[in-house]
Design brief:
By secondary structure, the protein is an alpha/beta fold. It is 31% helix and 22% strand. A 7-stranded mixed beta sheet has the order 5-4-13-14-15-12-16, sandwiched between helices. A 6-stranded mixed beta sheet has the order 7-2-1-11-18-17.
Length: 426
């Protein structure tokens, strides 16, 4: 890439900002177009596992984010009555995967990523529409993007415009798009002074609850339940949570007592069931939910978006864009690397959702008994379940060398946070 290469990123979420920071590090002139009036995401948390933390090492942000780790000691999986099905030890996870689980507010990560960009690089209240994907290698066919201020030309467009990506629809109009995953989610981030609890996720029949401390002293709580698409509470969502979870074990009642109706975010979950034929076309690359929206049950939506961004900017040494060639020349390699991986992770997330949100009484009893027995006889199998996900390392960095950061798997906290009702992840 040369310093004159022009990059437009459509979408100012975590995937888009990571891509912008990484491509700027390569020397690109980057403009981020965000349709919302500000970069402030809807209030919820995100868990970062070692794959994403190692990717953030490439742009110099990994250690800053690791310092926000709050999970210490035991956590685990419980039943609504409070019985422990499985224990998870933070130290064991850190030993296996090389660092702590990091759970932080999405706004914190967005702020850190935006801080890597120069003033003026991010334009808010700037909706964008792809009008021409362009042709790599043809200087007469740059990509073209229409904005309220006129049409922009780019050597590369990064589409990070979320689960209902307009760019994806323009590139692949025959693709069926997203489907309803069968469940809805609620999230809150609130102060909860004086209430001590171990981090946990609780599985009921067709319902999940999770409660986790954040480094800043607040608490992140989330819930998920099987429900018809589009269903909403007849009164307010806090009241709905009380009806569904009010008699679950502590600290669920304490959290609900501290929540105001306006604190609760509720969104249905959608995912891409049929993988796209490619993550690129012409000079355009798709990242994050635009490429591979998945259920949040593995906590990997945002993590995979970060992987996408770093792989796009710093592909494996020896690929066409690993040196000074335009990034757009290497987009077939980007698809070749990212499409199989994200498809596999997404399928695992779908399978996890079926297990987590099982609704049958007999099946739930069998599931819980099996989890408890597995925890007693082979606890390391829980960690091993994240092999192939949490152990990913970035293919290259500014010097072409693989990142060597550390991190931890998503053991408990699901990536339920979204920037808005239209997105699963950044």
């Amino acid at each position: 890439m040369t310093a004159a290469e022009r990059v437009i990123v459509i979408g100012g979420g975590i995937g888009g900002l990571t891509a912008a920071a990484a491509l700027r590090l390569r020397g690109a002139r980057v403009t981020v177009l965000e349709r919302a009036p500000s970069l402030e995401p809807v209030g919820a948390a995100i868990s970062l596992s070692p794959n994403a933390l190692r990717a953030l090492d490439v742009i110099g942000l990994g250690d800053d984010i690791r310092a926000l780790s709050a999970w210490q000691g035991d956590g685990g999986l419980r039943t609504p009555s409070g019985r422990w099905l499985a224990r998870a030890e933070a130290a064991a996870a850190a030993e296996r995967f090389g660092g702590p689980l990091v759970l932080l507010h999405r706004a914190t990560l967005v702020d850190r990523l935006a801080g890597l960009l120069p003033s003026g690089a991010v334009r808010t209240a700037a909706p964008a529409r792809l009008t021409d994907p362009g042709v790599p290698g043809d200087p007469g066919r740059p990509a073209r993007v229409e904005t309220p201020d006129g049409e922009l030309e780019a050597d590369l467009v990064v589409a990070a415009d979320g689960i209902h990506s307009a760019v994806r629809g323009a590139l692949f109009p025959g693709h069926p798009g997203v489907v309803y995953s069968g469940f809805t989610t609620w999230r809150v981030v609130i102060p909860l002074p004086g209430v001590a609890f171990p981090a946990h996720e609780t599985w009921g029949r067709g319902a999940i609850w999770g409660t986790h401390p954040l480094k800043d002293g607040r608490v992140y709580a989330y819930a998920a339940a099987v429900a018809p698409a589009g269903e909403r509470a007849p009164d307010d969502e806090r009241a709905e949570l009380l009806r569904r979870y009010g008699d679950w074990h502590s600290p669920v009642p304490e959290v609900l007592a501290a929540v105001r109706p306006e604190d609760v975010l509720r969104h249905d979950v959608h995912h891409i069931a049929d993988p796209l034929p490619a993550f690129h076309l012409g000079r355009v690359a798709l990242v994050g939910d635009a490429a591979h929206a998945m259920p949040p049950t593995l906590g990997q939506g945002g993590n995979q978006a970060v992987e996408d961004a770093i792989t796009l900017a710093f592909p494996r040494p020896g690929t066409p864009s690993s040196a000074d060639a335009p990034v757009a020349d290497g987009l077939p390699g980007y698809t070749a690397v990212r499409l199989p991986r994200t498809t596999a992770v997404a399928r695992r997330a779908v399978r996890a959702a079926r297990l987590n949100l099982m609704t049958g009484r007999v099946g739930t009893v069998v599931r819980d008994a099996g989890l408890a027995a597995l925890s007693r006889t082979a606890p390391s199998l829980f960690l091993r379940g994240f092999d192939g996900v949490a152990d990913w390392r970035p293919p290259g960095g500014p010097s072409g060398a693989a990142g060597d950061g550390s991190g931890a798997p998503r053991m408990l906290a699901a990536d339920h946070g979204r920037r808005g009702p239209e997105e699963n992840t950044p």
